[in-house]
Specification:
- By secondary structure, this protein is of the alpha+beta class.
- It has one domain.
- It has 4 helices and 15 strands.
- The longest helix has 17 residues.
- The chain is globular and about 45 Å long.
- Bound molecules: adenosine-5'-triphosphate and magnesium ion.
- Adenosine-5'-triphosphate binds next to strand 6 and strand 7.
Length: about 210
């Protein structure tokens, strides 16, 4: 097993699994031992019922609540609540990749790219990266977890105001895919753009 820590992200890789997590998240799970298993089970129960005529959209067990939000072509999004914590979970079924080390869109690359983006944006005011927490990936599926953000999307009016700022962010994050307003929130309290869905074109470990 390869193991490394860089910045605030712990990374583990085996031939069949990739895992990245923050220390905060490890502490949370350490104090809530069942939360991962329970969330995993509830997510899978919701997923397996989605094709039914009246699918279940929300389930609760052992103090964990999982709500289905929506789905893209391959990704499904959930809100997971446990105690005073709320998380966003993006789950992707991996059916198109034979190899684990494909360097495209996936949770593990997303968490490394997000960590790297935070570094690249250092010192630039008016922007921050989503509070990423966990990425887990095996050969069949992946999960990306961030702290739930109750923030506004960027509409065309807001976009006018933020346009020049976004241009500077794009400059800093050269080589990233999809630095577009549909992958950003706006935090009116701090006047910050909040970036998510970050994927560096070619992700190399340890950068
Ligand atoms: N931390 C978060 N808290 C709350 N909502 C979030 C969070 N992160 C993402 N979202 C919401 O979930 C949606 C999907 O997120 P994201 O873009 O990461 O997923 P995706 O599957 O790559 O979607 P797409 O293919 O549309 O880019 C976002 O448009 C946003 O509205
Ligand atoms: Mg997106």
């Amino acid at each position: 097993m390869q193991k490394e820590t860089f910045g605030e992200l712990n990374l583990r890789e085996t031939n069949s699994r990739q895992l990245g997590y923050t220390q905060d998240f490890a502490d949370f799970v350490g104090n809530n031992q069942k939360v991962l298993h329970t969330s995993y089970d509830l997510i899978h129960e919701i997923l397996s019922g989605l094709r039914k005529s009246s699918p279940v959209m929300q389930l609760e067990r052992d103090g964990v609540s999982v709500s289905f939000i929506d789905h893209e072509v391959t990704n499904k999004h959930f809100k997971v609540e446990s105690g005073d914590k709320t998380f966003f979970v993006k789950r992707e079924a991996i059916w198109h990749e034979k190899t684990l080390f494909f360097r495209g869109h996936n949770a593990y690359n997303e968490i490394i790219s997000s960590r790297r983006a935070r570094e690249l944006l250092k010192g630039l005011p008016g922007v921050r990266v989503i509070n990423f927490q966990l990425a887990y990936r095996n050969k069949k599926e992946s999960f990306f977890v961030s702290t739930w953000a109750d923030l506004s999307e960027i509409d065309s009016k807001l976009l006018k105001k933020l346009e020049s700022r976004i241009a500077v962010i794009k400059q800093r994050l050269k080589g990233y895919q999809n630095i577009v307003e549909s992958n950003m929130f706006y935090d009116a309290h701090t006047d910050e753009i909040v970036l998510y869905d970050l994927h560096e074109g070619e992700v190399k470990k340890g950068r």
